[in-house]
Amino acid sequence: MAAALALAASDAGQRVLLISVDGKADLAEFLEVAPLTAEPVECRSGLWAMLLDTEEALREYIQLQLKIPMLARIGPLTKIFDYVATAAPGVREVLTVGKILYEVREAKWDLVVVDGVASGHIIGQLGASQAINDLVHVGLIRSQTEWMIELLADRTVTGAVVVATPEEMPVSETLELARRLRDETPVELSAVVANRVLPELFGEREEALFESLAARASGPSETVMRGARLAVDLRRNRARHLDRLTAELDPPAPVYFVPYLFLRTHGLRATRQVAEALVAEMGE
Question: The CATH number of the domain where 267 resides is what?
Fold first, then answer.
């Protein structure tokens, strides 16, 4: 979904950076490009993408903040960093979020889209800056986390977009994530995208005709009718979960629907179809 959002924005003429923070290779597959690296590469006109590498982020931080040239790998320093990150939870998360926010602050991009970690870990990343800021009251670390918190809390700059499928567990997890974003982080929930939404096959008049035909069907046509009935039942069962999502979302946020794409592959064609569906849903 992150790739589709980034593609839609770049198609609209924006200069976009797409970042994967968990090392997944599927972004490259979705955009049909070579495997991504820690350096932004232009995938399409106006669209750059990169993988966020913690070691590279540490290297860049040292160069920018401590003015230490790092021409070779930072092996010993990396070991120290791993020790500190283990002893002081939040350090690695701050470094990750700091790299993303640095790209935002530098204003080289009109939009930065982040393909974030799973919902169980994203709260820790987004809340780490505030947690460390509460512990450290003076010095460089304090000043660094302060500007991060300002950007994260600025609703005109930062927003979370949560993706869910219309099923019981994903909807429950989305509602819980929305609550935790509100209570534990400075980041606002901007929107929810309901993915893989099945289409409604029949209106009322069409359904009455379908029931009449199904009652008389036999042989191969009966198999077709059973398949159609299964599709209708699935659509309506999932609609209950979508109704719950929109009714219980707190804080309230727009919910955009992306149709189920009956495709076997997930390359650029599918990504573009999702992007077009999002643009149509948002009315842009």
Answer: 3.40.50.300
